[in-house]
Amino acid sequence: MDEPLLKVDQISQRFGGLLAVDSASFEVGAGSITALIGPNGAGKTTLFAIISGFQKPVQGHVHFAGQEITGRAPHELARLGLARTFQIVQPFVGLTVRENIAVGAYLRHRERAKALDAADDIARRLGLEKYADQPAGTLTVSARKRLELARALATSPRLLLLDEVMAGLNPSEVRDLLPTIRELRAQGATILLIEHVMQAVMNLSDRVHVLAEGKIIASGTPESVVDNEQVIEAYLGEGAASHYGKDGSTR
Amino acid sequence: MTEFLLDINGICAGYGGTEVLRNINMAVAPGEIIALLGSNGAGKSTLNRTISGLLRPRAGSILFDGRSIDRAMPSEIVELGLIHVPEGRKIFPNMTVVENLDLGSYRRAATRRAQNRERVFSTFPRLAERRLQNAGTLSGGEQQMLAIGRGLMAEPKLLILDEPSLGLSPRLVEDLFALISRIHAEGLAILLVEQNVMQSLMLAARAYILEQGEIVLSGLASELRDNPDLKRAYLGM
């Protein structure tokens, strides 16, 4: 098997008396779309913050493309090719969409003209070209989510971490976003996503890791994790697993 | 004239450019116990906020006890007897148990305050033992009892319990659900909003499943328990 692009090894994080992440390990294969799911409060966002360098774990290691990156600053990780989006999007509202995307593109392009060209290219890929000259503050929620993706993509990442890019979208906007994310992967990015919109997760992902109460309780294909007893209990509450048969039918 | 205590028709609601609830229809009959279930981000809290008047719906109507409340102030809705026990309990930690309870009768049933307090204490003897203790020193389970007790002080016609099991151990959740069942058995209508699906379906008579802002399943709790679509609503397949 190929060396994974991202390897999370025995990561723990503690906030006072609360063990938010408890010795979590998982891998993200190069070229995959991998999902990190779990009920509310499972520790997904904390784990994301650790991988992307916004928090230092109390224990464990993160390896990216063969080198240890635990505790490295976000800007260093961006240079290495690891970018993330945020659940709460915060574009520069007074700058245009093109300029917002160019902020990310400056990482790889020193000249303004080249950064703006790169921004235009990314705006096209994400269906934002018609808004390119508009201030970001005028965008709809769904376009803001795409802009968030565009800014991360402008840093030319090898690994893109997507934090709930579908939250706040209506079902038809979610359907429109799915092919865009698949297209990013087709163009060479590896994607790790946190998502609550389960139909989208199951539809997009090659592999799914399930976090509950800080621990990874299951890893596998979408089909295998939804039949996993611990996963069913984590989502539907105690007593649920015994209620559902292995084939998903009820007992 | 409606036979329902709470009758929600075609409610749409959201924040800014984000549409959260789409065409919600839901009803609670007098004395009925209903579960509103759904995964994180499904829209449960937004629906609660809309029912309680903290958020104006963009479309649709809400009737409570035969009166339209979709344009009413939260305080007016409380005065009508629709009492919301909030998620996260929201008790006042630096006030005593008794003071917290008394605040529940600020807008309603104030004249029967002492009598209702004794009723709450007989339902929750633990609170009676700690009546002069600051609420912040109570355990998580006791704080949840206090939040429910404070709701009962207003003599509710409908009690909305928003995620009462949040943060409690499995054992305490069982105790809490037994208590809710007892309160309901005395004739009180309850809307139980929960992430704890199976236990809620054991307690409620009917349930509504909210997913991405829409009611995707509803019916008798006993039938929903055996419906494979329930798992699909939570796990996507």
Rg of chain A over CA atoms, rounded to whole Å, is 19 Å
How many H/I helices of chain A? 9
Outline of chain B: globular
The tally of domains of chain B stands at: 2
CATH-assigned fold name of the largest domain in chain B: Rossmann fold
CATH class of the largest domain in chain B: Alpha Beta
Question: How many beta strands in the DSSP annotation of chain B?
Answer: 10
Helix content of chain B: 25-40%
Regarding CATH, which class of the largest domain in chain A? Alpha Beta
- C-alpha termini separation of chain B: 41 Å
Biggest interface: A-B, 33 and 28 residues
Helix-strand sequence of chain B: EEEHEEHEHHHHEHEHEEHH
Oligomer classification: heterodimer
CATH architecture of the largest domain in chain A: 3-Layer(aba) Sandwich
Q: What portion of residues of chain A is helical?
A: 25-40%
| Main sheet record of chain A | 6 strands, mixed
Mean pLDDT of chain B: 92
Number of strand elements of chain A = 10
Query: How would you spell out the order of helices and strands of chain A?
Result: EEEHEEHEHHHEHEHEEHH
Rg of chain B, Å, rounded: 17 Å
Query: What's the number of domains of chain A?
Result: 2
Show the helix and strand layout.
The complex is a heterodimer of chains A (about 250) and B (about 240).
Chain A: E1 6-15, E2 18-28, E3 33-37, H1 44-51, E4 59-64, E5 67-68, H2 74-80, E6 82-84, H3 97-105, H4 112-125, H5 141-153, E7 159-163, H6 171-186, E8 190-194, H7 198-204, E9 207-212, E10 215-220, H8 222-226, H9 229-236
Parallel strand pairs in A: 3-8, 3-9, 6-7, 7-8
Antiparallel strand pairs in A: 1-2, 1-4, 4-5, 9-10
Chain B: E1 6-15, E2 18-28, E3 33-37, H1 44-51, E4 59-64, E5 67-68, H2 74-79, E6 82-85, H3 97-103, H4 113-123, H5 125-129, H6 140-152, E7 158-162, H7 170-185, E8 189-194, H8 197-203, E9 206-211, E10 214-220, H9 221-224, H10 228-235
Helix pairs in contact in B: 3-6
